[in-house]
Structure formats: C-alpha cells, structure tokens
Specification:
The chain is an alpha+beta fold and 423 residues long. It contains 15 helices and eleven strands. The radius of gyration is 23 Å and the shape is globular.
Amino acid sequence: MRENIQITRLENGLTILTDRMPDVRSVTLGFFFRKGSRHEPNELNGISHFIEHAVFKGTKKRSALQIAIETDRLGGNLDAFTMHEETGFAIKVVDRQIANAFELLADMLSNPRFDEQELKREQRVIIEEIKMTEDSPEDFLGEIFNEKLFPNHPLGLSIAGTPKTVRTFNHETTQKFHARYFSPNNLIVAAAGNLEHAQIVELTEKSFNFKTKNQKPKTKDQKPKIAAPIVIKKNRNLEQAHLIIAAPFASAKSERRYAADILANALGGGTSSRLWQKVREQKGLAYSVGASAAMYQDCGVFQIYAGTSPKQTEEVLDISIAELRRVVKNGIKSEELELIKEQTIASILLGLEDSSVRAGTLARLEMVHGRQISLEETIEKIEAVTLEEIQDLAREFFQTEKIAFGALGNLNNLKIRRERLEI
C-alpha cells in the first residue's frame, strides 16, 4: 500500500497528520501527547497514567457510563496507553463514524470532569493494578531492575507510580497537571484509513483550536546516566527464576538505530536467533528467552530476558554472556544479516495494511524526528546496514563494565560478581 501522508500545523502548536488508505473501510484516530512518565516530577510519579484512566470517568457533558455506551455503539476499539515519553489514545472505527468518534475522544481529552469521588475510586483501581504488577515476576523484576539501571531518573520509576503518589492525585492536582501538559501544544492528532485530510483538520480546529500560554511543546528531559547494577532479589515462592542482562544501546534518534535493531534481533528476536536456538532448542533451559532494544529519544537499552529453573540460572547467564562475547569478537554472519533484513522489511510492509499501525507510526516519527520518514528511505537505511556496523555497535556497548544483571526467584545461594559478566 502506498503512503499518502499530509501534514497541517496549527498556530497553537498542534500537529495534524493523516495517511489516506482508500482501499479500506476503517479509520484509526489517534491523539498522542508528547508527555510521558519521564516528564513527571518525582512527587507526581504516575500522574500521566492516572490521567489516562481518569478521562474515561466523565466529561462536562458525558458520564462515564455514557462514554462506555457511545464507545460500544461506535463498534470500534478504544485504547489508551502511557509510556515513558508519550501518552496516547486511539480508536478504530468504520469510516462513516469518523466525526462521532473524533468528537467523543476530543470531549474526553479537552473537557474531563475529574470528579473527586470518581478519582478516589480510580486511585483504588490503579493501586490494584500496581499490586498486580508486583505479583507478576517478569514485570516486577523489570521495575526493580530499571530503578537501579536509571538511578535518580524518571526512567527508573514505575509508569503507574506508587500507592503513595497515586493517593495524592485529587481534583486540584490532576486538573492542574492536565491543563499544563495535556494541551494542544503537546498534542499530535494522527489518523489513518479511508479519510479526507481536510475533514480531520476541520474536526481538530473545532475541538482544539485554542491557545495556551506557551506554544512550544512542554517537555523537560534530563538525559539519564545508565548504570551497570547487579540486582538479585530472592523470592522462595516462585517456581522459576527470571533474569535480565542489559547494556546501554543506540537511541531512537541515532542513525545507528537500524543496525541496533538488527543486532538485537540476531541475538534474540525470533525463533532462528542465537539465544533462542542455544538456550531453548539446543539446551532446553527455558520456554521464554529473547532479546530486544528499548530506544528512547536520548538513550537506549539492549536487554536479554529469560525465565528458567533456579538451578539453571547461571548456565543461562553464561550462555548469554558467551553470545555477547562472540558477537563482539566475530560479529554476525552475512546470512544472519540478510535474513533479519528480510524479516524486518516484511514486518514493515505487513504493518502498512493496518490503519492502527500507520497512525501510530505517523505520531512516533513526528515526536522523535519532527518529520515523516518515507517507506523508501526506511527500507534503504535497513538494506544499507553492514556487518561492520553491527560489530562496531557490539564492541561499543557490550563491554564488561557496562553490563547489568538482574534476577528474581528462589535464588538463595546465587552470587554474581562482575568477572562473571566479562565480555
């Protein structure tokens, strides 16, 4: 499918992006704020996520029940999420419901009631969500590990906040934060599907064409210093041990992000990857094992994850470190590089069939790069990645003093020294 992207920027700082897909009957409307948990002060940790929930609890003209009924009547899928660098709301509907769906989301985001009693109920809901995370070993390990990986930085804090901070989110606090950050100058409206750009511009101007005091996007990013902790948390009630191996990596803005993605995929991105084959297929040590790259605007993190029996934790660790050592010394093979390039390009092309993927991509590119990167340019950059680039990345980031390790489980006798992580 060919891209048909149009852009309009309003005087109040709001950006409108559309990608017309005339051969489908669906439309995804996305409202993405350049605001995430990393932009929160410590005492308000979790408030972006709280607002994501609270806007569903009623507006000045709709109750929470009416919002739920209208969403069901639209027959679409309304989703919301909070991440470290953005908060998003998206709804996918049939094309004849564009105006109704837009008006519903716009009302929720620009006119939330933030009723005190509703907020108190939602506080309890989110505190239960936090408890649920603590009961999930993989998620809990991620949170305690990130706190040490990003010391004294918002990226190391939970997106959901803590019970202590969540209980402080009353009407006044929530309303003030929403007015300051969830404003047009921080908003990107991104839509994809069977639509007309002019209609989306008209709907946006009708709902969001008001000015704020500062027309520039309000974000405050302090670049983190990534540490190399060794974190071992004992929990005798767990059958499995969960482990993470991490290192600094390329950022989302880096020109080397394409090579970084390929390197992560070669190590643990699929069933033919090195770690999957070694740890699961050849050794049978884990059901779940893989590697990924988390890329933020000013930094990145490479991460290996595995779940295994406590007595096998050290063997999985040793195999993983050996693979990092091997890629530093020898790089990857040309066959691996070509396979992952084909896999990556195929994934991108298949994503073009989904209006939700296209709307999300529009917003993400605008947030990170301030421009749209064409499909042709993306494929060209992927195909241009060389074996030398891959090995250079590995040599730069996979260094003994930069490797971090985290484990959670029934690990009473586990002690890992820095020498064990030697590359």
